[in-house]
Amino acid sequence: MAHVRLTGQPAPPLSTLFDGTMYNLGWDGQRDASVADNILLPSIDYAIYLINAVKFHCGQMFHLFDDVSFMRQFHNFYAATDDDSARGLWYVHFLILLAFGKVFVARKNEGRRPLGADFFVQAMKLMPDITFLHTQPVHAIEVLCCKALYLHCLDFRTSAYTVIGEALRLALGEGMHTNMQVEGLDEQHVQRCRNVWWTVYILDRQMSSLMGVPLAVKDDDITASLPTFHGSLQKTLALELNVKLSGIISRILNMDQLQAYLGWQRIYIFYTISLLKKRLDHLEEEQAIPTTTGSAKALLQMCIESSQHILAVLERLKEQNLLESFLPFDLEGAFVAGMVLLIAPLVDSELLTTQFPWLDMAYATLDELGAQGLLNARARKGELQQLQKVFEQMPQPSQNDFVDEEQAVFMQQQAMHLNMDSENPNFGYEFIEDAIWRTTFTADQLINVANTLDLDGIDWMTTGSNSGIQEDEV
Fold first, then answer.
1. Does the pLDDT value for residue 385 go beyond 50?
2. Is the dihedral of CA 217, 223, 227, 233 positive or negative?
3. Confidence band of 100 (pLDDT split at 50, 70, 90)
4. Within its chain, how far is the Cα of 451 from the centroid?
């Protein structure tokens, strides 16, 4: 929108990403069961190493396989002398996990074809049709979760969303969303079903949010208990936090006002768009950047603080070489945070007096991910830089419209202080610690602010006109 308004031309094609075009699997999607399985499998020790890598990178967030039953079949497979075991659902599951493991272990990928893609493609060729997956529902759902997550990592978002939808419906059909009782069922089976259900739930919420589509099942219809991890408090807390975060996403996407006015799109995106459009409408006028008030200002302030918090956490992960170079969540966090901090000063000059050092931190995170071969990171950084270049071409209001003299001196001192400390190995620790632990708004406050937003001020997005917008409405 900003590029078109300033230049009169659409954005360059290279800065526009389309679903499923980033990576090349080297496969046309055709499945031929008669094709011989000529893929070279790793040795048993290396295969165990790859599977353990998957557990390390994904085990705290998702349940992708049942360790006991999977490893039992794993050892049977390597001990077998025939090929019958290489045609079942377990073998498909095994190949997808190897595909994950290869890219996790390498931590660097060259070219558009990800490491381990051969394993994934072979798994897809042997994958049974959804019609026949009901015979092994729990195992089938685990395989579908693996498939959906892998596709999501490669930016095949529509395909990933479709696959996790299949997993969700299988889980619903098996009653996994209910409070399964141990009576009459094996305790281990119940715990496995709970693990499977909450993994499906988390993935479905995340993918639905990114796609901007309605949720398939309401939280009110879910009565399943969380699984228990004996002797692993960290894993229990990690799952609980992920479920709570997904629940917040559900509450936001299910708000009545959001459904009525925005068609299930994210509310803060539309508010930002409306305010940015108003800023662009006054490009030729010599006036201050319009400021926001009330609930809209509170929501935008939350976006900024959340973005700073995200970048501070990612900076710490980068320092410890713990950024995820394949899973997309660190990438999305850096990109969204950078986008918010780019747009914020143009929406309201009082929201963010300086973008330093936050944008540098976002770019540094994307550079690190790009150096590890994450093509999405390079593309996302290009998008941010393109947007920054466009914004730099916008006419700036007078100096008095930004900050007073005292604020300007303070900003300059802060910048000099941070530059002087850049040679210190502990550079920025106190600054980052403050950003990580500073929390002004709770999740409930976020929901309350969203519920009280005046949505009448964005009717122009559905009517095609903004002539009736008043500043106090936005």
1. yes
2. positive
3. very high
4. 24
Residue 465 reports pLDDT greater than 80: no
Length of the chain in residues, anyone?
474
In the numeric block, which tokens belong to residue 232? 């692993």
Six token digits for residue 433: 């610690």
DSSP string, 240-251: HHHHHHHHHHHH
> Are both 270 and 250 inside the same structural domain?
no
Distance of CA 289 to the CA centre of its chain: 32
300 part of a folded domain? yes
- Of residues 295 and 392, more confidence is placed in 392
Cα separations in angstroms, 450 against 152, 322, 339, 431: 29, 34, 20, 29
Query: Is 137 in the same domain as 270?
Result: no
Q: Are residues 65 and 167 in the same domain?
A: yes
All residues at 6 or more sequence positions from 184 whose CB lies less than 8 Å from its CB, including other chains: none
Q: How many domains does the chain have?
A: 2
Q: Strands, DSSP E only, in 71-200?
A: none
Neighbour-count burial of 413, counting CB atoms closer than 10 A to its CB (0-12 exposed, 13-18 middle, 19+ buried): exposed
Residue 404 sits in the same domain as residue 292: yes
Residues 216 and 322 grouped into a single domain: no
Q: Give residue 357's pLDDT.
A: 83
Domain boundary residue among 254, 276, 293? 254
Is 167 within 8 Å of 208 (Cβ atoms)? no
Residues 369-382 as b or e (16 or more Cβ within 10 Å = b): bbebbbbbbbbbbb
Q: Which domain covers residue 240, as residue numbers?
A: 17-254
